[in-house]
Protein: D-malate dehydrogenase (decarboxylating)
Amino acid sequence: KTIKLAVIPGDGIGHEVVPGALGILERLGEIHGGLKFEFEHFDYGCDHYLQHGDMMAPDGLERLSQNDAVFLGAVGDANKVPDHISLWGLLIKIRREFQQEINVRPAKVFEGIRSPLANPKDFDLMVVRENSEGEYSSVGGRMFHEEHEIAIQSSVFSKRATSQAMHYAFDLAASRGKMVTSATKSNGIYHAMPFWDDVFKEISSDYPDVSTTSEHIDALSASFVTRPERYDVIVASNLFGDILTDIGAAIMGSIGIAPSANLNLNGKYPSMFEPVHGSAPDIVGKGIANPVGQIWTAKMMLDHFGYTELGSKLLQAIEDTFREGIMTSDIGGSASTHEVTTSILDKLQ
Ligand code: NAI
Ligand code: MG
Structure:
């Protein structure tokens, strides 16, 4: 079996963490035997914009779609291109055009990493975020002028996308800790969130073995910080999920560790796998970027393609590396990007 990957290192530290992750994928393919990766490299990013006036080539989406998945580093270099142009011209364009309607982000604390949590070992959860609509809609506008000016921003919640996110969360929970928490705010948001609650109740009846709770996003955010060990799978709207996953990354110890998957569920387009972090201009070129976000992202991709055994091997190698204290400076270590990557690679077998 050959998996065809569209590889976009992008900008900044994307170029420092992507090659190592590809090497790890190749090694895992060899270990498995008969699993090959074919990488098609794309130089899309801010330099492409400076040269051609566009973040990706005009036939970029078409060419990316010939692959089984997109493996992306990070996008953005504000010295060259304003961030809203680079982000919308590449990352968000791919998410929208490839109908990647679900965003999944795990969070956990690895042994060996300092954590303020009482029971860091029990902190191991997944946030499933609706990735296509909700609060991030373009419905609304600005009207009137000066002191009379009004901005109206409507959220859009469709039954289809809402139930899809919830089904995904319940299926995931069924294979894990058998608990789903819904992030709601039906006491304050009058139309959308009572609807969200109704759909959640309806879908939950299909999963009698999975227990459920529903928590208002304000209270949930607070207890996410103080007692995140209580959660297993959280399902959230676009905005709530965005906020929760950044808190999750902070609890993990560094944004440099956090992975994410943007999933296309209708099978028409590739899914995209990318770390949560950006291009980190403040540390670019120093060789100290944490490669684990990108490498853990590769594990999520392996899981997605059904190679969960390889995914577990990879996670184990990351855990063993941290346990030995081999880590980059963002999480209190002194190892380089290369040293951490090599250690993980060497532990695979
Ligand atoms: P950032 O994630 O690039 O950096 C935030 C902080 O975290 C910095 O101090 C950075 O050094 C550190 N950091 C990030 N990744 C790290 C890693 N792997 N190892 C060690 N430290 C790491 O976010 P920032 O500074 O807000 O944005 C920088 C650029 O990245 C902007 O152009 C922004 O638009 C873009 N960006 C792109 C994203 C993406 O491609 N998904 C996500 C977030 C930002
Ligand atoms: Mg965010």
Observations:
- The pocket of NAI (ligand 1) is lined by residues 13, 74-78, 83, 87, 91, 255-256, 274, 277-283, 289-290, 293, 328, 330 (CB under 6 Å).
- Residues 291 and 313 are 17 Å apart (CA to CA).
- The chain is about 40% helix and 20% strand.
- The radius of gyration is 20 Å.
